[in-house]
Write a structure and sequence with these properties.
- The protein has 4 helices and no strands.
- With 87 residues, it is mostly helical.
- It is elongated, with a radius of gyration of 20 Å.
- The mean pLDDT is 79.
């Protein structure tokens, strides 16, 4: 008896592995179980891969500067209040 993984299992493992470590720690088992119950189509694979890219961007590039700027503004709102800055 062979203990090698099926193609669907390898694909599911690869797709889950695309996500950042913190995401996999929190949601990886759920995604793996979902993919085991319902093997993904090529469109699903593309969607999952794009979701992984989005997760990496949010974690590292796109949101951190914006979040830091929002936190800075919250601590030090512009003169006139947050919605009506004075010129």
């Amino acid at each position: 008896m062979s203990n090698s993984k099926t193609l669907a299992e390898r694909l599911a493992s690869w797709l889950v592995g695309l996500y950042p470590y913190a995401w996999r720690e929190r949601y990886g088992n759920e995604l793996a179980a979902l993919l085991a119950d319902c093997p993904p189509s090529w469109r699903d694979c593309l969607d999952i891969a794009l979701g992984a890219l989005d997760a990496h961007l949010i974690e590292t590039v796109a949101w951190k500067p914006l979040c830091l700027e929002a936190m800075r503004r919250k601590r030090h709102p512009p003169a006139g209040g947050p919605f009506f800055p004075l010129p």
